[in-house]
Write a structure and sequence with these properties.
The chain has 9 helices and 18 strands. It is an alpha+beta fold and 388 residues long.
C-alpha cells in the first residue's frame, strides 16, 4: 500500500522523471503534470496529499496553482511545496506568502527532496490525526448537546404545569438553571383531605448528576405524600431514600410544607433550606410586610438517622408565600455584597397582585441588584398565593 499520493508539477520532463523515480522507490504513489492546468486535471481524478510544483511554468505557473489549491475548501488542506530557482530569503518569504507550506531551492538534490517529503508526510499524518480527533470531538459535543437539551426538556417537564392551582392556592415559578439543567426542583400536590403538599429542594452540585438526583427527590416526595402522614414523616422518608440511593458527598436542602385550607395552617419542615417568606396580604398586591418562616433542620441525604422538626404557621386567604433556592440571593457583586434574605424581603415588600407579574418582578429586581454579575447557581423562585 502506498505511503501517500504526491503530485509532481514541472515543465521539465527530466525533473519530473527523477522525482518520480525516487518517490516511487520510497513507496509513494506519484502523479505528474507539466503545468498548473494539467495538475488541476490530475487532481480531478485523484486528490494528492502533497504537491511539489515548479514556480515558473507555461499555461499556469506554480504560484497561480498554489493560489487556486489553497482557495478551494476541498483542496486547501493539501500540503504544497514550491520548487524555485529564485533563491534567497525574499523569494522564500514571497512563496510562503502565496500560501505555500514550504519551498525548496533549485538546483536540488533528489535525496534532499525525499527527506523533505518524508518529514512532510509525518506532519500530514499528524494533521490528519488531529482532524480525525476534531471530527470525533465535534460529533461527541453534538451528541452531548443534544442529550443535554433533551435532559433539560425532560427536567422542565417535571415541574408543575403553569398556571398552577391546587386546593386553596394558586402558584407560578421561575426556573433558571445555571447550565441548561440543574439541581433545583419543586412540586405542589393536592392531598385527599383537601390540603396541599408543597416541596422545594436544591441538590448539591450542578449539571446532569444534580438533575438526576433532583428527579429522585421529586419522586421520593411524591411517594411519601402518597403514603400519607405529615411533613415530618415525609422528611424522614425522603432522607432515608437519598441516603440509600446517593453517594456520601451528595445531599439536598429542602423545605416541605402541608397547607390545611380549612384551618389556614401551614405545617412545615425545613431541611437546611432557605426559609420562605410569608407576605401578609401579598396576594392582593401593593405594599405589605413579610415574615420569615424560620426553621432549623439537617439536609437530606447526610445520615439516615438525622432528626427533623415540624413547625407550623398561619397562611390566611390573601397571603403570599415566596419560596426560593439560594442561587437567587447569593450572587456576589463587585463590592462583595449579596442580596441575601434581607434584600429579598425588601424586593418582596411591594409586588404586583398577579403571581406571574410578581415572579417576573422579583427576578428582574434581583438581576438589577446583582448587575453586572449574573446568576451563577441554579435559581428557582415559586410564588404561591393563598386563595379563599
Amino acid at each position: 500500500m502506498a505511503k501517500g499520493v504526491v503530485l509532481v508539477v514541472d515543465d521539465e520532463a527530466p525533473i519530473r522523471d527523477i522525482l518520480s523515480f525516487y518517490l516511487k522507490r520510497a513507496g509513494y504513489q506519484v502523479l505528474t503534470a507539466g503545468h498548473g492546468a494539467e495538475a488541476l486535471e490530475e487532481m480531478g481524478r485523484l486528490k494528492p496529499d502533497l504537491i511539489i510544483s515548479d514556480l515558473r511554468m507555461p499555461q499556469m505557473s506554480g504560484d497561480e496553482l498554489c493560489k487556486r489549491v489553497k482557495a478551494d475548501p476541498a483542496t486547501q488542506d493539501i500540503y504544497f511545496i514550491i520548487l524555485s530557482a529564485l533563491d534567497g530569503t525574499a523569494s522564500r518569504i514571497g512563496g510562503l506568502a502565496l500560501g505555500a507550506d514550504d519551498m525548496i531551492p533549485k538546483p536540488f538534490h533528489a535525496q534532499e527532496v525525499l527527506a523533505k517529503v518524508e518529514s512532510t508526510f509525518r506532519l500530514i499524518g499528524m494533521q490528519k490525526e488531529i482532524r480525525r480527533q476534531n471530527r470525533e470531538l465535534t460529533s461527541f459535543q453534538d451528541r452531548v448537546r443534544e442529550e443535554m437539551e433533551l435532559a433539560a426538556a425532560l427536567q422542565m417537564g417535571m415541574l408543575p404545569k403553569l398556571p398552577g392551582e391546587a386546593p386553596g392556592v394558586r402558584y407560578t415559578h421561575r426556573y433558571l438553571p445555571a447550565s441548561g439543567i440543574g439541581g433545583d426542583i419543586y412540586d405542589v400536590l393536592p392531598l385527599p383531605d383537601g390540603g396541599t403538599a408543597i416541596m422545594i429542594a436544591d441538590v448539591s452540585g450542578h449539571g446532569v448528576t444534580a438533575a438526576l438526583i433532583s428527579a429522585m427527590v421529586k419522586t421520593s416526595f411524591e411517594n411519601q405524600v402518597r403514603l400519607g402522614g405529615e411533613p415530618l414523616a415525609w422528611a424522614h422518608g425522603m432522607n432515608e431514600d437519598l441516603c440509600r440511593s446517593t453517594l456520601a458527598e451528595q445531599f439536598a436542602t429542602a423545605w416541605l410544607g402541608c397547607l390545611e385550607p380549612t384551618k389556614n395552617t401551614l405545617r412545615y419542615v425545613a431541611a437546611g433550606h432557605c426559609a420562605p417568606l410569608r407576605i401578609i396580604g401579598g396576594a392582593r398586591g401593593g405594599l405589605h410586610r413579610s415574615e420569615v418562616l424560620r426553621g432549623k433542620g439537617f439536609m437530606l441525604g447526610l445520615d439516615a438517622q438525622l432528626p427533623f422538626v415540624e413547625q407550623d404557621a398561619e397562611l390566611q386567604p390573601g397571603d403570599r408565600l415566596v419560596l426560593y433556592t439560594d442561587g437567587l440571593v447569593e450572587v456576589e457583586r463587585e463590592d462583595r455584597t449579596m442580596l441575601e434574605e434581607a434584600g429579598l424581603r425588601r424586593l418582596c415588600a411591594e409586588l404586583p397582585e398577579a403571581s406571574e407579574a410578581a415572579a417576573d418582578a422579583v427576578v428582574a429586581q434581583a438581576r438589577a441588584f446583582n448587575a453586572p454579575a449574573a446568576f451563577i447557581d441554579d435559581v428557582t423562585l415559586v410564588i404561591l398565593d393563598r386563595v379563599g
